[in-house]
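Support case: user asked for a sample of complex input and structure output to validate their parser. Sending the pair below.
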Amino acid sequence: MKDNAILVIVARFLIPLVMLFGLYVQFHGEYSPGGGFQAGVLFAAAWILFVLIYGLETGLRVIPLRVIYSFACLGVLLYCSVGLLGVILGGRFLDYQPLLASPQAAQQAGIILVEFGVGVTVASVVMMVFLQFARRRALSQAAGLELDQEQDRS
Amino acid sequence: MSALSLFNYWAVIGLMMLGYYCVIVRGNMIKKIIGLGIFQTSVFILFISAGKVLGGSTPILREGVSVYSNPLPHVLILTAIVVGVATTAVGLAIAVRVQEAFGSINDDDLDRLGYDSQDEDAA
Amino acid sequence: MNLTELMPFSVLIPLIAAPLVALLPGRVAPWLVASASAISALAIAVATWIGVSQAGVLRYAFGNWPPPIGIEYRVDAANAFVALLITAMAAIMLIWGRATVNREVPERQGAFYALFLLAVSGLLGITLTGDIFNVFVFLEISSLATYALIAHGGDRRALLAAFRYLIMGTVGATFLLIGIGFLYIMTGTLNMVDLAERLPAIGESRALQVGLAFIVVGLALKLALFPLHLWLPNAYTYAPSLVSAFIAATATKVALYVMLRFIFTVFAPEYSFSALPLAMAFTVLAIGAMFAGSWLALLQDNLKRLLAYSSVAQVGYMVLGVSFGTVLGLSASFLHLFNHGLMKGALFVAAGIIFHQTGSVRLDSLRGLGRVMPWTLTGLALAGLSLIGIPPTAGFISKWYLISAAIDAQQTWLVVLILLSSLMALAYIARLVELAWMQPRPADAPQVSEAPIGLLAPLWLLVLANFYFGIDTRLTVGGATAAAEALLGMGG
């Protein structure tokens, strides 16, 4: 669809905005509405829009599948290691108090880190869910397995 | 307490029946997943509507607000929604693979293919 | 670090190891890390068990938020007992399962083991948590991982089994969520102890009754209580051997445990049994399960499906113990929960070895196999003896306690039914033995050899455990009694 000028222009305008909004939701999540889940989905939505416009190969050149997969795992690991950090510093799992001296700053830092892990994981998992379905279609089309009606639609 | 004051429960019950009926009656896997989604959504509405306090504001700390809705159901349901999305994704992924392996995602066709018969040996 | 601080790590270690394992390439590293994390979870579960038997109750508040606000893990004898079974099974199965996974899931083993660890930590989370919403979340974590694991089965029908389980399991979990919603709306809390304190004050309420009904039905689906067992046989039959063995030994048991936790701790037993005709319903359904399951098991010509139907029957025994509503009945349930995990684990491990060596688990292919693979088939037959309930096996002990509980509850007629359904178990196990030893090996049968020691050792460990716990019952009977008392004591 990258030949359609309207789509390309609108997407060029929209994708950075959606990503920026995703980041805003991510980093204001600790004391206003927002957080990792919403931000992750927003970020992934921007990427999916990019793939819809520019095609799967271009999308995968930006972020290869292997990287997305690793980010999904690393996000969970970030979450868990923040949790473990609390234990190592003498608190309990997911206890943010020991992280910093001031309790308010500690809570804020802990939540931002944990939510960042959540955001990374959610974004990459949503991207991966989309990708696996889209790629499967491309693979089966290449193998000539695709049903006729679906070829018509594309 | 009039019947209308409980309309959220009526909506929940309606959606719940609709979704569950869809899960039971439809033979198509995708439609079953859609039904399951509606069924789960009805429960989400049950939780969220229970968290609303009449006349209450959004549960954000600010000046001049003393009555606010219960935020906990929203947080719980956020988790449940994620679970629901994951269920849908797994269900759809299995449906795609069933389509590839059997050439159909319709219960009737699959039954005819001998899903429950045992003559096809485990590979 | 004292035991209370250590306790939640039996859930956290597999949970943290899962993304790590998913990142590891190749075949050896994921398996090593997964096994190591399962073994350390087992060690912590053992430590927790010791701690609970000394201190009574261990409580751990996550993030140091005190319980009604935060999520707490609350472990008493009942959870610790079930956690012990889950971690032990996970560790043994993982060590055993490497060869079978290499054969059945040749690619992307990192993801496979990660899913397995998620299923383990989900089941453990359900067991240890003291928060009812947390139960739902962990139930879904373990269920989703299990659906994906079942879909890994080599047979294409594994996909259909996984899908059917997904639909029925999600409906069950959503029913549980509805019930939790009713409880939350009525009390404003999700903490089990808090609920147990607040619920009696509400008294007779239709909403609570409906909530309890939703919870019981939803968990009965997960438990595969007859007639809600339809997902189970195909799921167990087509799943990869490692997955069948693990979920057959643990998944339904955890569902039973949560159901008991709701009936006996969250709601007081007096309330549960008077608000709903639970005693009546459980008795009827348990008898239905015992006979329908055993009867269907007799008709199967696939070893794994036979064992799956036998699981349906065995769930009947566990629920029958609950239906008495007495300490004795409940301890019989817990005892059978543990012992059945041991024997079904052993049987499915044997089935997995047979599949690994011969490539088939059809009963036809068992013909004369006893002489070719004596160690495997002897293990299968001995675990079968435990399933029937012949002394001195663990199965005998649990049937013995179940029968004493029935007599104690003045339901002597049930003794006859328990014995009758045990006779049916005898029939299907005898059929296996007859096929394996009395019949000649067909001339056109493929050439097979005895399994390597690495596969046999875990099988024999489980088989010998069946005999050990049939003779030395201190851990099992003591644990089950403590578990039953913990459940009944807290709510009352």
